[in-house]
Design brief:
Layout lengths: L5 H11 L7 H17 L6 E3 L2 E3 H14 L16 H6 L18 H18 L25 H11 L15 H4 L9 H23 L6 H19 L5 H4 L9 E10 L17 E11 L4 H12 L3 E6 L4 E7 L2 E2 L8 E6 L18 E7 L8
Parallel strand pairs: 3-9
Antiparallel strand pairs: 1-2, 3-4, 5-6, 6-7, 8-9
Helix pairs in contact: 1-2, 1-3, 3-5, 8-9
Length: about 375
C-alpha cells in the first residue's frame, strides 16, 4: 500500500523486536518505523487512527517501545509539547478505571483491553521482565518463574517512574454484560423449541426402553444416548432457527427513541464490474434512509435493523458480547471478492472510526455510510 498506519506499524515492530539486536536489516527497518511513530504522535501524547485520536494506537506504541527495551516514558522522541505516551493514554481513562475509545466517551471493550495490555507491558519493562509477547521467560531472560527479586518498595519505586502515584492505583473494571450473555430460556422462546425438546426427550426414552427390553441394562449402555440427547436439547435451546419470512420484514418499533440517524449502503467502487445480480448498476444497495435510534444503539444495530427491514443479506464475524463485530459481507458482496485489500468499511459523519461497528454508539443526527473498498479505504477518499 501507499498509506502508513500507526497501529499496524507498532504491531510489526512488536513482532520484530526479538531480532532487533541481532539482525542488521531488521534494525534498519525498525529504526525507520520508530521515526514514523515519533512523527505521528500528537501534541497530547496520543495518536490518531482513521482521523480519530484514540488510546488503542497509543497502547500499541507503548508495547512496541517496551518490547525493544526503549523507555516509553522518558524517551524524548515520544514526548510532544510536554506530554508523553502515558499522558496520551490516560486521557481516555474513565473514573472506574476502564477506557473509552474517544476522549470523554463511554466505556469501550477494545480500548480497555489494549490499554490494560500496554500497562502490563509497561510494568514488565520497569520490573525487569522480558517483553510483553515473550512468553517463554519471565525476568531478565531467566527461566525462573518465581517473583522478581526486588522488594515491594523497590517495585513500587520503579512503577512510580512510569506512572505518577495518583495514576498508579489499582485499576479495576466491573462491567455488567449479563444482558448480552444471558442464556435464552425455552419458555421465553418460540413454541418450536418446546416441541423439539420434548421430541428429543421422547426419542431418548424410547431408545432407553428398547435397550432395557434387549436386556442391555448396564449403565454404560445408556451414557452415550443420554449425552447425545442432552447435547441435542441444548442446541435447540441455545440457537434460533427462523425462516426467511420470519427474519426479514418490519422490525419492532422502539419505545425509547432519542433521535434519528441516516444510513446508506453503497458499492460505487465495483459498480461497473462483477455479477450484476448482486451489484447494482448505480452502486446503491440501500439509499439514504432514516432510522430511529434508542439509547445505546450502535452502527451494527442499525445495519442489522436495515437488513431485516429491507431484506439485505449481511454476514458478520464476532459479536457485541465478545467486544468486536466485523462485517464480512453485505448484499452477497464479500470481503476479498475484489482483491486482498477489499472489504466493507463504515463512515460516520464523514470520518472512518477506528473502533468496530458494534462499539460505535450513535447520537442524534449521525450520518452512517457503509462503503465497499478495494484498497483499504484509499479509494474512498
Amino acid at each position: 500500500g501507499t498509506v502508513s498506519d500507526v497501529d499496524v506499524t507498532a504491531m510489526a515492530v512488536q513482532a520484530l523486536a526479538l531480532y532487533y539486536d541481532t539482525e542488521n536489516d531488521v534494525k534498519a527497518v525498525v529504526d525507520k518505523a520508530l521515526i514514523f511513530l515519533s512523527e505521528k504522535q500528537l501534541d497530547g501524547g496520543d495518536y490518531s487512527g482513521y482521523g480519530t485520536p484514540n488510546p488503542e494506537s497509543t497502547s500499541q506504541v507503548i508495547i512496541a517501545l517496551a518490547s525493544l527495551g526503549i523507555d516509553p516514558v522518558e524517551d524524548s522522541r515520544f514526548i510532544k509539547n510536554g506530554n508523553g505516551l502515558i499522558d496520551g493514554l490516560l486521557k481516555y481513562r474513565l473514573p472506574d478505571g476502564s477506557f473509552s475509545h474517544t476522549e470523554n466517551g463511554a466505556f469501550n471493550h477494545t480500548s480497555t483491553v489494549q490499554a490494560f495490555c500496554s500497562l502490563v507491558a509497561l510494568k514488565r519493562y520497569f520490573s525487569g521482565y522480558d517483553a510483553f509477547y515473550t512468553l517463554d521467560k519471565t525476568q531478565n531472560g531467566s527461566d525462573d518463574v518465581s517473583e522478581p527479586s526486588e522488594t515491594p518498595s523497590q517495585a513500587e519505586a520503579s512503577d512510580s517512574h512510569a506512572i505518577s502515584s495518583d495514576e498508579s492505583e489499582h485499576i479495576s473494571v466491573s462491567v455488567d454484560i449479563s444482558a448480552e450473555l444471558s442464556v435464552p430460556d425455552a419458555t421465553d422462546t418460540t413454541n418450536y423449541k418446546i416441541w423439539a425438546s420434548l421430541s428429543v426427550s421422547a426419542v431418548l426414552i424410547i431408545i432407553c426402553f428398547v435397550l432395557w427390553l434387549m436386556k442391555k441394562r448396564r449403565i454404560k449402555n445408556y451414557i452415550l444416548p443420554i449425552m447425545l440427547g442432552i447435547i441435542a436439547v441444548l442446541i435447540i435451546i441455545l440457537t434460533d432457527f427462523q425462516s426467511k419470512g420470519d427474519y426479514y420484514g418490519d422490525t419492532a418499533s422502539k419505545t425509547d427513541v432519542i433521535g434519528t440517524v441516516t444510513l446508506t449502503v453503497r458499492c460505487d467502487t465495483i459498480a461497473a464490474e462483477g455479477n450484476a445480480e448482486y451489484i447494482p448498476s448505480d452502486g446503491v444497495i440501500l439509499p439514504v434512509t432514516i432510522f430511529d435510534i434508542a439509547n445505546g444503539d450502535s452502527v451494527y444495530d442499525i445495519l442489522i435493523e436495515a437488513a431485516r427491514k429491507y431484506g439485505i443479506q449481511v454476514e458478520n464475524k464476532g459479536s457485541k458480547a465478545a467486544g468486536m463485530v466485523y462485517i464480512s459481507a453485505i448484499g452477497y458482496i464479500y470481503e476479498y471478492d475484489f482483491g486482498d485489500l477489499a472489504g466493507w468499511m463504515y463512515r460516520v459523519n464523514g470520518v472512518f472510526p477506528s473502533t468496530d461497528c458494534g462499539g460505535y454508539i450513535l447520537s442524534d443526527g449521525d450520518i452512517i455510510e457503509w462503503l465497499y473498498t478495494k484498497n483499504l479505504g484509499d479509494d474512498l477518499k
